[in-house]
Amino acid sequence: MKIGKTDYGEKPLFLAPMEGVTDASFRLMCKEFGADMVYTEFVSADALIRHIKKTQAKLEISDEERPVAIQIYGRDSESMAEAARICEAAAPDIIDINFGCPVKRVAGKGAGAGLLRDIPKMLQITRAVVESVSLPVTVKTRLGWDHENRIIETLAEELQSCGIAALTIHGRTRSQMYTGQADWEPIKHVKENPRINIPVIGNGDITTPQKAVQYFNEYKTDAIMIGRGAIGNPWIFRDIKGYIESPDTYRPLTPAEKMEVFRRQMLESIARLDERRGILHIRRHLAATTLFKGIPDFRETRIAMLRAETADELEKIFDKIETTYLKQ
């Protein structure tokens, strides 16, 4: 599969853009575990134009994480085109447009998935961004605003006509937010449309190697994008690739190896931010991981882990988890 001039091979796996998650250190970690492309946290066009330092910092990328995409969102074509030009100067491999974020502070202000209620404006923004840069421009969106307005099959053709190089579809409507099960049937219909000649990337509910292989085989997407399934689980890319290559012999990481990943995440987060903010950042991954699922009598340790405020506290809890729970 190719986007622009970059060949991603067969059945590539992409790390989805996630606010507060896909910082540089996490992107690099997922890359090391086999992600074929990673995305930055999404970037506000308005904040970028106003030179907000926290937003500008999101444009910092390294050669080690390539290919990498910068994702932008906004609600008008002029600011999005200007933001795209600023992003191009940061030299990503792709600029991605966010038409899928469902949260109120984005969609409620007419950006992200909010543009699923104003398709002419969505297409105007897409054309403006495509025309403003020389890099490949891609789009990430949803099935539609709600169940009565699942318009993705028509919308995909319209977005393609704007000149985008690939389309990622999350298998939910905006109204669903992240509830219920992602529906990949409409994604399959887009992929099977003979008039669609750009790569189609499926997104939603990929949490195991078995499910990834099943969805590749059943829905025939060119690539799979993994979002929440990678939080607290960056090795999912390694697991999926190992399962694709040899389902009978691939070896998942041991619990001890996974704990080492969390230690590294903690230290890198602290180094990048500071101790307080670094600990807060790693909490999201510790809360989401399936590593501790099903461990009996783990509740008190889990609470202590998610309340730890220093690296020393968290390190001692990690040691306790390894010696008390993971070696049973």
Automatic annotation (TrEMBL):
Q: Where does FMN bind?
A: Q71, K140, H170, G227, R228
Q: Top enzyme class of this protein?
A: oxidoreductase
Q: Where are the transmembrane segments?
A: none
Reactions that this protein is recorded to catalyse: a 5,6-dihydrouridine in tRNA + NAD(+) = a uridine in tRNA + NADH + H(+); a 5,6-dihydrouridine in tRNA + NADP(+) = a uridine in tRNA + NADPH + H(+)
Annotated DUS-like FMN-binding domain residues: 15-308
Which cofactor does the UniProt annotation name? FMN
Instruction: Cite the InterPro entries for this sequence.
Output: Aldolase_TIM, DUS-like_FMN-bd, DUS_fam, DusB-like, tRNA-dHydroUridine_Synthase_C, tRNA_hU_synthase_CS
Instruction: Note whether Glycoprotein occurs among the keywords.
Output: no
Asked if the keyword Manganese belongs to this entry, the reply reads no
What is the protein name given in its UniProt record? tRNA-dihydrouridine synthase
